[in-house]
């Protein structure tokens, strides 16, 4: 019988296998029934002999095969197999979906404001009257306190300091005034260890006239002779053309060594590099590599619109054609058709960006690029620096339009300036805002102290990255600088063009020299006399201070997704008030800002905005007494210079009904059931 055959095979096999004692017993006892079924499966099933053979260890292959082909095993196996296939596919699909739907992580330069340190004036560690690298290191707590992660440190290259370090003598060395390369490396390491990023100035347009390249160039060294822009001229007028310097007078200076004129769009001590020369381009690229390899996190690329000049050197057209050519001395006298924003400029920047990208690949190592270009009413020119969807350029060009805010403090004007950027910025790009820097009067002076709080509130609640010039967080003002104290050569021909007033030492405390240094009485520019009331130490103790408000809003901005990446929608603007909201689809929590830039108190009626709840509550006012106040949306009272951040809860979003009033960099939605954000 077939049963017998199986038995025989078993005995044979068992001789050779590791033995199963239980099996042995059963086999030896011969108690197994010899019933044989027609169906081999059924036979095995019902066969007591086999049911007792457990566990299967030691079973010969054939027996195992017999078992495993039973329906109950086979079907289970097949179900499990297909289940596994389905699960794998589902997992892959889920992963792909999650990746596809996850909003991009916000980068470090988007999450935090950029804090601009004007090195000479921030903190003086050695008491020589000039701020230095060690001084910054001493003050890192300040950034932590303000919840600031990105710090732009002004130029520290070796320099004769004719233009405050923007005249570079050696792009690979630190000026002894600021410290040593070791100090720099230490500062960078320290900053990185506490999660701070360092952005430095890159100054490609010109060098100092003391730079080695310039000396070789004026000596007509064959390699260096075309490093700068030279043209024939003699010691007296006429100059090669009518071009003028940004700081006034002719942009040409005669060089006795070479017997020719060289071009400078800034000081005569800042000869323009010739970017039509490939060696110059290579030199500057190498310098970028040098600092990226040291670990700097980004560059502020200065004066980039001046990089190239028309090679034909033709006269620029006069704004007033009737003006006598010899009285054409200011940058406002000419249309800069040949010295500014020349063709090829963006190729240079895009090439540098590509070099930076190579260093950006490691996680957490993104290298940031911001460009400086004042294009005034030609906002399209500024927007070019964003690059295209195919070729990357800067992460953002500095937005200088809010510098015009003091011209007309009104809600409509501020809305106009904000809109100028939002309407012209290429889709999907990231906005940015500033109201001051080392080249422009301080906002607290030009707009007035009344508005400093509401201006900071604007910057910290608009979409995009704000830049804060040192001291703006405490409302520092311009300082009066007498003729004998004057430092800035830009004010040489016209004292009102001097940038000294906005460069006075940082006001840390009520101590000597406002705590800027404590070893001497000397500071390179005078400390502002208001330092006893306007300083960090005093304001830290005062919950209603400019500083406390800055800190609160910056922390709020970083913890609230609607403020970080949500929609920005215009709600209202009039002579006094500018109002907008920030919301995120799927999230009930939203923020309404009501900012009074006017000269009088105002009552704003937002009852036409159906998406807003009738009852509102002030989360933060620039007037501390109004914090927590309950409001009717039909009667929102603000004093002149008062700003309100109102947090509210709603389940109807404003943006779907008013798309023309709203803007978002990248659409993100919130899914409350699983508490995640996704791209929508
Ligand atoms: C940059 C700086 C400015 C300097 C100019 C010329 O624009 O911001 O301070 O004077 O370059 O170097
Ligand atoms: Mg140039």
From TrEMBL:
A Pfam family per the record: Alpha-amylase
Coiled coil ranges: none
Cellular component terms (Gene Ontology): apical plasma membrane
InterPro entries: GH, GH13_cat_dom, Glyco_hydro_b, O16G_dom_2
Region of interest called Disordered, as start-end residue ranges on this chain: 22-45
Record keywords: Amino-acid transport, Cell membrane, Disulfide bond, Glycoprotein, Membrane, Phosphoprotein, Signal-anchor, Transmembrane, Transmembrane helix, Transport
GO biological process, one term: carbohydrate metabolic process
UniProt protein name: Amino acid transporter heavy chain SLC3A1
Organism: Cyclopterus lumpus (Lumpsucker)
Highest classification ranks of the organism: Eukaryota, Metazoa, Chordata, Craniata, Vertebrata
């Amino acid at each position: 019988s077939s049963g017998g055959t199986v038995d025989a095979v078993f005995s044979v096999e068992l001789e050779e296998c590791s033995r199963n004692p239980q099996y042995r017993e059963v086999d030896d006892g011969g108690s197994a029934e010899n019933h044989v079924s027609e169906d081999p499966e059924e036979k095995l099933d019902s066969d007591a002999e086999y049911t007792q053979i457990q566990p299967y260890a030691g079973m010969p292959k054939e027996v195992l095969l017999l078992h495993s082909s039973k329906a109950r095993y086979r079907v289970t196996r097949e179900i499990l197999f297909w289940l596994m296939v389905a699960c794998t596919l589902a997992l892959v699909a889920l992963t792909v979906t999650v990746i596809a739907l996850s909003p991009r992580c916000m980068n470090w330069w988007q999450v935090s404001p950029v804090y601009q340190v004007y090195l000479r004036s921030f903190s003086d560690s050695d008491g020589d009257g000039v701020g230095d690298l060690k001084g910054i290191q001493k003050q890192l707590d300040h950034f932590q306190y303000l919840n600031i992660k990105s710090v732009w440190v002004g130029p520290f290259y070796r320099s004769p300091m004719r233009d405050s370090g923007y005249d570079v003598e050696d792009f690979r060395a630190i000026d002894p005034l600021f410290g040593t390369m070791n100090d720099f490396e230490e500062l960078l390491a320290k900053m990185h260890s506490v999660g701070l990023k360092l952005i430095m100035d890159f100054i490609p347009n010109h060098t100092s006239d003391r730079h080695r390249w310039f000396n070789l160039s004026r000596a007509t060294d064959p390699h260096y002779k075309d490093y700068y822009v030279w043209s024939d001229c003699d010691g007296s007028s006429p100059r090669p053309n009518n071009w003028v310097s940004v700081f006034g007078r002719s942009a040409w200076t005669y060089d006795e060594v070479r017997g020719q004129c060289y071009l400078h769009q800034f000081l005569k001590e800042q000869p323009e590099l010739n970017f039509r020369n490939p060696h110059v381009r290579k030199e500057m690229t190498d310098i970028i590599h040098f600092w990226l390899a040291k670990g700097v996190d980004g560059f502020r690329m200065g004066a980039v619109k001046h990089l190239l000049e028309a090679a034909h050197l033709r006269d620029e057209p006069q704004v007033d054609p009737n003006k006598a050519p010899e009285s054409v001395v200011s940058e406002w006298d000419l249309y800069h058709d040949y010295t500014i924003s020349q063709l090829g400029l963006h190729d240079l920047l895009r090439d540098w960006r590509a070099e930076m990208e190579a260093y950006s690949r490691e996680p957490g190592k993104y290298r940031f690029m911001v460009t400086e270009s004042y294009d005034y009413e030609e906002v399209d020119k500024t927007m070019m620096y964003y690059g295209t969807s195919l070729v990357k350029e800067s992460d953002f060009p500095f937005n200088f339009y809010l510098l015009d805010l003091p011209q007309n403090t009104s809600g409509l004007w501020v809305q106009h300036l904000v809109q100028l950027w939002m309407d012209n910025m290429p889709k999907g790009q990231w906005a940015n805002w500033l109201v001051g820097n080392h080249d422009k009067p301080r906002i607290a002076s030009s707009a007035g102290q009344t508005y400093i709080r509401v201006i900071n509130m604007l910057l910290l609640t608009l979409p995009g990255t704000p830049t804060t010039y040192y001291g703006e967080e405490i409302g520092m003002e311009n300082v009066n600088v007498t003729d004998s104290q004057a430092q800035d050569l830009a004010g040489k021909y016209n004292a009102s063009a001097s940038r000294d007033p906005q460069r006075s030492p940082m006001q840390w405390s009520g101590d000597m020299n406002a705590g800027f240094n404590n070893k001497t009485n000397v500071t390179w520019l005078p400390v502002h006399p208001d330092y006893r009331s306007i300083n960090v130490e005093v304001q830290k103790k005062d919950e209603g201070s400019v500083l406390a408000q800055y800190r609160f809003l910056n922390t709020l901005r970083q913890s609230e997704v609607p403020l970080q990446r949500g929609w920005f929608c215009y709600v209202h603007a009039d002579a006094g008030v500018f109002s907008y909201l920030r919301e995120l689809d799927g999230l009930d929590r939203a923020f309404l800002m009501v900012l009074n830039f006017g000269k009088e108190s105002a009552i704003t009626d937002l009852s036409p905005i159906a998406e807003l709840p009738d009852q509102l509550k002030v989360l933060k006012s620039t007037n501390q007494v109004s914090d927590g106040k309950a409001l009717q949306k039909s009667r929102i009272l603000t004093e002149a210079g008062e700003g309100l951040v109102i947090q509210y809860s709603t389940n109807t979003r404003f943006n779907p009904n008013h798309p023309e009033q709203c803007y978002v960099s990248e659409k993100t939605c919130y899914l409350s059931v699983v508490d995640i954000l996704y791209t929508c």
